[in-house]
TrEMBL record:
High-level lineage: Bacteria, Bacillati, Actinomycetota, Actinomycetes, Actinomycetales
HAMAP family: GrpE
Function text: Participates actively in the response to hyperosmotic and heat shock by preventing the aggregation of stress-denatured proteins, in association with DnaK and GrpE. It is the nucleotide exchange factor for DnaK and may function as a thermosensor. Unfolded proteins bind initially to DnaJ; upon interaction with the DnaJ-bound protein, DnaK hydrolyzes its bound ATP, resulting in the formation of a stable complex. GrpE releases ADP from DnaK; ATP binding to DnaK triggers the release of the substrate protein, thus completing the reaction cycle.
Gene: grpE
Record-level GO cellular component terms: cytoplasm
Protein name: Protein GrpE
Major location category of this protein: cytoplasm
Length: 202
């Protein structure tokens, strides 16, 4: 006897319906699983990421080079300032040294004048004369101080100060007739001009 269900269908059809799944089975995912960050589907390293890190490194190197260049420039400027300071200090020290010498010489000029007058009158002899001679030699050797002015020298307004003037037919140019007070100079620098009497052509 054939079994029938309430719908009148045979058992085989009922079995097929019972065995059929409620929903179709999902298709198998054939795609590869996601790879770790920094790698693509083939397992290769992310080149873009590497370039980004390289660019950052190059930028840092450029910044360090710029900083080093600035530091070198600062060091150079500091060295130039120091060299300028040393040069200025030496120049100022030299000026002060020469000013000190000039002051001492100016103080001694009256002593040298008295010694020159005493020598002209024959009064500067013996030990006193030796002391004065040594003083004059020391001033000339160590400081370049020289006495100048002799009768017959051609008159030079840069080296002579005329205190009197006469005329004569015996001279062709203006010249020193006699020395009132000798002059002194250091090299080309006139410490004190010679005070003289001048004779001029008629």
């Amino acid at each position: 006897m054939t079994n029938e269900n309430f719908g009148g269908q045979p058992d085989e059809q009922m079995n097929d319906v019972a065995q059929a799944p409620d929903q179709a089975a999902p298709e198998q995912d054939t795609t590869q699983p996601a790879t770790d960050a920094g790698e693509d589907a083939t397992g290769q390293t992310d080149v873009v990421g590497e370039l980004s890190e390289l660019d950052q490194a190059l930028l840092r190197v450029a910044e360090l080079e710029e900083e080093l260049a600035r530091r070198k420039a600062d060091l150079y400027n500091l060295g130039q300032e120091y060299n300028g300071y040393v040069k200025r200090s030496k120049a100022e020290a030299r000026v002060q040294y020469e000013a000190g010498i000039t002051k001492v010489i100016d103080t001694l000029l009256s002593v040298l004048d008295d010694a020159a007058l005493a020598r002209q009158h024959g009064d500067l002899t013996g030990p006193a004369g030796a002391v004065v001679d040594k003083l004059e030699q020391t001033l000339q050797t160590n400081f370049g101080l020289e006495r100048y002015g002799e009768p017959g020298d051609e008159f030079d307004p840069e080296h002579h100060e005329a205190l009197m003037n006469t005329t004569s037919a015996d001279v062709e140019v203006q010249q020193v007739a006699h020395i009132i007070q000798p002059g002194y100079k250091q090299g080309e620098k006139v410490v004190r001009p010679a005070r003289v009497g001048v004779v001029s052509p008629e």
